[in-house]
Amino acid sequence: MKKILIVDDEDLIRYSLSSLFRDPHAEVFSVATGKAALDTLQNHPVELCFLDIHLPDMNGLDIMRTLRDISPRTRIIIMTGSLITGEIMRRIQEHAHCLISKPFDLEQVGSAAARLLTAHVPLHREDRLDTGSNESSIVWMDGNWRKHPRMPVRKSITCHAVDPQGKKEPVLVNADVLDTSGSGMCIETPHALEPGYLVQLEDAPTPGSGVVRWRTRSAAMETYRTGIQLIAPENIPMLMRSADIWRAHD
Q1: What is the pLDDT of residue 50?
Q2: Averaged in consecutive runs of 10 residues, what is the pLDDT profile of the chain (250 residues)?
Q3: What is the CATH number of the domain that holds 69?
């Protein structure tokens, strides 16, 4: 029987994930604090752990490190709705299998969990940070998990970025493309593009439209690495496809 631990102080997150994995062949433990998580781990070895970074009593990253020490076979999925700095990402890379940004799609989270539970990887592998584009809100810490191989690229581009909620004016963004894959690309830019922003990639290696899925601040704290998922034009609201909006700041 698979044992899964969910650690998050948000009731809705715990309820949603618990419901997702409710199965006769799975036992799900759901807790809201770091102390409760450590108590559970002392008594129940788990195959998979969903772990929020910000907990009311402890830092989730400290729990992550402890979990890796006491249960090296556990697959760790880190969850956060906050900006991830380079130092935090380095710590996640060292101990976790993937990072999920909130809000997330439950179907994709379920698929990610299934891949972790059924695949066989070395327990003490040397992870490398996968900064390339990713499927939805998920960043894999080991390139072997990726569905779409990434290709290193170095190209300077400009792109239009639009807040889909219309709260901020469209902006013209200068960026460097770092790598591409069949599903998107990773760029580095001085602009802090929020997850969910729509971008028009006119002179990128793969021209088209995309949506910002994640961003991390660089070590120098002056630029942001940003993951963009390519999307089909028909999936963009008509308002966002309007030339008047895309070119508002030409």
Answers
A1: 96
A2: 92 92 91 93 90 92 86 88 76 85 81 78 35 47 49 83 84 88 82 86 80 71 80 57 42
A3: 3.40.50.2300
The answer to whether 64 and 37 have CB atoms below 8 angstroms apart is no
Q: Which domain holds residue 135?
A: 2-145
**Whether residue 179 is found in the same domain as residue 133:** no
Q: Tell if the pTM clears 0.85, that is, is over it.
A: no
Answer whether 192's CB lies under 8 Å from 224's CB. Answer: yes
Q: In the numeric block, which tokens belong to residue 87?
A: 């130092």
Phi, psi of 156 (to 5 degrees): -85, 135
CA-wise closest residue to 138 among 188, 103, 163 = 103
Report which residue type is found at 236. Answer: I
C-alpha 181, offset from chain centre? 16
CB 226 within 8 A of CB 215: yes
Of 94, 116, 145, the residue at which a domain comes to its end is: 145
